[in-house]
Amino acid sequence: MGQLATLFEPDRIAVVGATDREGSVGRAITANLLADFEGDVVAVNPTKDEVLGLESHDSVTDVPDVDVAVVVVPPSIVLDAIREAGEAGVRDVVVITAGFGESGSEGASRERELRELAAEFDLNLVGPNSLGVMNTDLGMNATFGPESAQPGSISFMSQSGAFVTAVVDWANDRNLGFHNVVSLGNKAVLDESDFVAEWGDDPDTDVILGYLEDVVDGRAFVESAREVSRETPIVVVKSGRTEAGASAAASHTGAIAGSEAAYEAALDQAGVLRVETVQDLFDFGSILAGQPLPESDGVAIVTNAGGPGVMTTDAVGDSDLSLASFTDETVAAFQEALPDEANVYNPVDIIGDAPVERFEDALDVALADPNVGAAVVLACPTATLSFEALAESVVDLQAEYETPVAATLMGGSSTRAANDTLSSAGIPTYFDPARAVRSLDALREYRDISRREYAEPETFDVDREAAREILESAGRRDTNRLGVEAMGLLDAYGIPTPGSDIVDSRSDAVDAAERVGAGDEVVMKIVSPDILHKSDIGGVAVGVPPEEVADTYEDLVTRARNYQPDATILGVQVQEMLDMDAAVETIAGMNRDPQFGPLVLFGLGGIFVEVLEDTTVRVAPVSEPSAREMLDEIEAAPLLRGARGREPVDEAAVVEAIQRLSQLVTDFPAIVELDINPLVATPDGVRAVDVRLTIDQEEL
Amino acid sequence: MGQLATLFEPDRIAVVGATDREGSVGRAITANLLADFEGDVVAVNPTKDEVLGLESHDSVTDVPDVDVAVVVVPPSIVLDAIREAGEAGVRDVVVITAGFGESGSEGASRERELRELAAEFDLNLVGPNSLGVMNTDLGMNATFGPESAQPGSISFMSQSGAFVTAVVDWANDRNLGFHNVVSLGNKAVLDESDFVAEWGDDPDTDVILGYLEDVVDGRAFVESAREVSRETPIVVVKSGRTEAGASAAASHTGAIAGSEAAYEAALDQAGVLRVETVQDLFDFGSILAGQPLPESDGVAIVTNAGGPGVMTTDAVGDSDLSLASFTDETVAAFQEALPDEANVYNPVDIIGDAPVERFEDALDVALADPNVGAAVVLACPTATLSFEALAESVVDLQAEYETPVAATLMGGSSTRAANDTLSSAGIPTYFDPARAVRSLDALREYRDISRREYAEPETFDVDREAAREILESAGRRDTNRLGVEAMGLLDAYGIPTPGSDIVDSRSDAVDAAERVGAGDEVVMKIVSPDILHKSDIGGVAVGVPPEEVADTYEDLVTRARNYQPDATILGVQVQEMLDMDAAVETIAGMNRDPQFGPLVLFGLGGIFVEVLEDTTVRVAPVSEPSAREMLDEIEAAPLLRGARGREPVDEAAVVEAIQRLSQLVTDFPAIVELDINPLVATPDGVRAVDVRLTIDQEEL
């Protein structure tokens, strides 16, 4: 265990604000602790002599060796109570009391003081506005919820206290147990990152589940979770995913969450298995706690009914698992063991008259096949089958082979005892075969996470000073939006740009065209920080032959002046014209998230960015494998790789450009937003043809 | 009721093959019928005198007035038994016996005879290989399943008998009832279309549920379901959706299913609510049977817990419902009725200390709001709340307002009685709020289906004879693949093509270029039925100026000869060159599905067809609104409509081209496949630039 060992394994807990008043929170907590807690419970309440049979103390300072103080006094005296606890040497404090950050400006300022106090005494502080904490190992229920959790190997944190009471009630009804449970409350001090780190070190926690509405410190969470998720699965519902949900969450907790795209990318990079529903949270949590990871992706289906076998196969088709293809030996063994009418290929249909023994034989053969990484046992009610006996066989065979198994007993009351047998042995069992397969697929997903190799981001040799100079000169011109005049930033960071020059006269334009175009056609663009969509106003001329360069110069400047007379016009860019025949326009960009910092984006460029939104995002810094994955993830990836006989683009150059962009935006917090659009990818490399960025003067 | 009235409401049923042998199917059916059936049960078995207390007859011909014969004799004597039944005047027959189409060639030929016999006697025949049928209204369980269904308003058909036993067992455990249940078996005679039509006419069936592995007659099903689904919701799991699932289904039933794309389009066009999982099938079936349809899409959420309220809001965000925005009056009424700390906007958080009365007040206010089309009541366990009392209030208020409501009681055993109260009143209740919202969304989806207006497909004035001539001339040339030489087909059906000519000499090429290009550049393409990807071999020249036409002609022919010396070269096509600046390449195509006939496809064209697969499909004939929907459905629709300041293309011309293509492929069954790629859409209309088709000589 880590720094929170004492919080979860105290010898003595003081309830500050303990009372016997009926219906009060202070009574509920005291009673819950008295029920089963193996350690000492101490009541602190100066207005009482005795609380539920305990002597009541005036102050926590009157009691020696208190490990954890659970604070339930009114908000106005919470700070005093905590100071006393700190002075008494208590390091672990759970603040149940509400009326802090979640309730107006007075509460918010009280929460700031609370945080300062915690820093002063170096407190591990849960809450405020928390339901409390549980450790089933010690029978410790330091919450005011109506029920205690049953023991288990899942540790669960929730940003909603009500959800904790709901889950414990529901889980007790399903024999689903927990090791630790924490209601995070307002997360003034301890937050999700702390508990992830703690449980990552805890041998009694096999799976970490979380319900989160925001993440306090995005970077800390990603680092902590990435480390922990190698060994311990982390499954999270992050709510406020949708626009409506995000505004509901903001009004509920007062938290300003970062963008959904940032959470999506960050949780993935952190190795968190993100789910969208409560059902998936506990389905996935249960199977991860109960079953081993599959060594391969092939699923064997053993069924006594053809139709449900087809549905199960569809569910496998929907997942990232596959239908196992059996070895010849396996097929022969099935032929030996099963009646003629049986289907000895996958799904293995052992037919409606199958007794338990036939299920056993078939499952035994299937699990022995090296191509089988997981199995689904599916049974419909028949006259010849005992669900209870089947459940016992499945439990034994699963234990023997140590291959993950999920069950689908398709019935109602007749399956109840069998389902209990299976779930007690950690084998998930559902009526709907799709849920069984989804759960197995969660095992696969976590297996892949646990095998991930995290590469350090590469540090390229760049001209950081030149980049700084460009950003600062923009600052001096008192603008926060830059366009092609900032192409030098990309040059400084080694992101290739086309040969180009910015000129401010007809004759310079002709010279520049001669230089960058070498006699061929060129591209010319108006340069103005005030004109964003240059092509929409005719501010871009493509394929300008040498003899038309001078006139085109005049023409572009005139158009820009007509369009926006007060626009600052910095000149005209004369640019090398790329051979677009084998080229693909992509976009590489960045914006800055309040929780997670710079997000790097890559996608199909040009008009398709807006219409098809074929893009993917990572929290910076982006490593080489991660940049490569970004390329893999976009729908248009085959276009880059030479679909329909096209020549593939230089993938390595694209990947390197993404990494260099990542380095640039990580180095300069002043860059708030940046788009390279298009980043033209060709078989010979990439060229950043246009750039737009927004900078924050304050950060310069 | 329709033509199957007697099948479901017989006065007298004969069990042909009735027996008292323990564990036999014949005994199970006889016993099931004897248990509760209100009519007469007659045993037929020449080897017995008495079966389970019934006199046993030698033949069904010995018994007068038999309405339904349930046949469970061995396969070899099934046909004799059915002939006797037919001769005795029985018109409704349920064949339980297996060993027909599902088992080898002997079985298949027996099934053909069965079908002939049914035609001879005009029998309504269920099966063979069926579990049987139920009608709970009459206590009639003519199946060999272990349990009888409870009464209800859902009628259920299943292509898997085992799935029927599973569902009945499971549903009985949840108080979910059925009106009729049919195990379809091999569907030799009666199939899904017949039962859809029957239940559409049945006032006791509120919802039709189906588990199907294939659809026997695609067109008949679409027509029947389209009619029925206006009044009665049809929810179907069509399995074999995935490649793996389809091959599992084929090996299970021997059925050759059409393509998944065809099912997807056909079920949608038929107004069927297609679901992928067993869970959705019964979640959606239950709410459709129990709740009214929402008049608007706004959902009110009333909750005693903030966090779960946010999850519910996310689920609304995932659906096609929306979070209701309350009127000022509603907000004022909430402010009046609720404590200060409550959130009076949606989701309405009435806070953790809410008693039932506060839930009642809040729900009353919410349901009275004209913007609220549906409501979710969400409750976590608290000391102040009685779930049972809450359930009763919710039932009353739902009945008063006749607005659909779904409940989320987030707990375990403490919610059991309340859940029973709710579900008995037809109000669905789940632990996971996402399921509650999904169910409400199914109501919305069905509401939209029930309001659909089906337009008749337009019939354009076309030159059918010219089209026939082109197809027949291809037949005479003994080829089944046609290319640009078939552009005349499109001309005949009024699908615009670019000005074009096919020439076979240098000089004709020059003349043609002068004619179609009017002095501008032209496009030139090799014409050969043997060369499919012309541009890959350099068989296409774009932007050929008049002076290069003659040389390009030679060049194209030489390339084609070099590439494939034995290719038939029909000449070179000289084509008007389109201004592609404001153009979007689309594809319009067709292939023929064994179950559903011609499928019309539309999508983004060019290289994107293969890479992005941005296409959509309809079963022909395609009406005008349907063609317009196709355009709406593709991801790239905004490109056609003028994204980023582009000029929008002529949408009406695209829509008309799709309809004309639909008419062409409907008129000529000989066209097996056809692709117009690209169909270039511009602000001024469309042009079919290239066409490829495959024809079936037999159908000419």
UniProtKB/TrEMBL annotation, chains A, B:
<dbReference type="InterPro" id="IPR043938">
    <property type="entry name" value="Ligase_CoA_dom"/>
</dbReference>
<dbReference type="InterPro" id="IPR036291">
    <property type="entry name" value="NAD(P)-bd_dom_sf"/>
</dbReference>
<dbReference type="Pfam" id="PF13380">
    <property type="entry name" value="CoA_binding_2"/>
</dbReference>
<dbReference type="GO" id="GO:0005524">
    <property type="term" value="F:ATP binding"/>
</dbReference>
<keyword id="KW-0547">Nucleotide-binding</keyword>
<dbReference type="InterPro" id="IPR013815">
    <property type="entry name" value="ATP_grasp_subdomain_1"/>
</dbReference>
<dbReference type="GO" id="GO:0043758">
    <property type="term" value="F:acetate-CoA ligase (ADP-forming) activity"/>
</dbReference>
<dbReference type="Pfam" id="PF13549">
    <property type="entry name" value="ATP-grasp_5"/>
</dbReference>
<feature type="domain" description="CoA-binding">
    <location>
        <begin position="7"/>
        <end position="100"/>
    </location>
</feature>
<dbReference type="InterPro" id="IPR016102">
    <property type="entry name" value="Succinyl-CoA_synth-like"/>
</dbReference>
<dbReference type="Pfam" id="PF13607">
    <property type="entry name" value="Succ_CoA_lig"/>
</dbReference>
<keyword id="KW-0067">ATP-binding</keyword>
<dbReference type="InterPro" id="IPR051538">
    <property type="entry name" value="Acyl-CoA_Synth/Transferase"/>
</dbReference>
<dbReference type="InterPro" id="IPR032875">
    <property type="entry name" value="Succ_CoA_lig_flav_dom"/>
</dbReference>
<keyword id="KW-0436">Ligase</keyword>
<dbReference type="Pfam" id="PF19045">
    <property type="entry name" value="Ligase_CoA_2"/>
</dbReference>
<dbReference type="InterPro" id="IPR003781">
    <property type="entry name" value="CoA-bd"/>
</dbReference>
<protein>
    <recommendedName>
        <fullName>acetate--CoA ligase (ADP-forming)</fullName>
        <ecNumber>6.2.1.13</ecNumber>
    </recommendedName>
</protein>
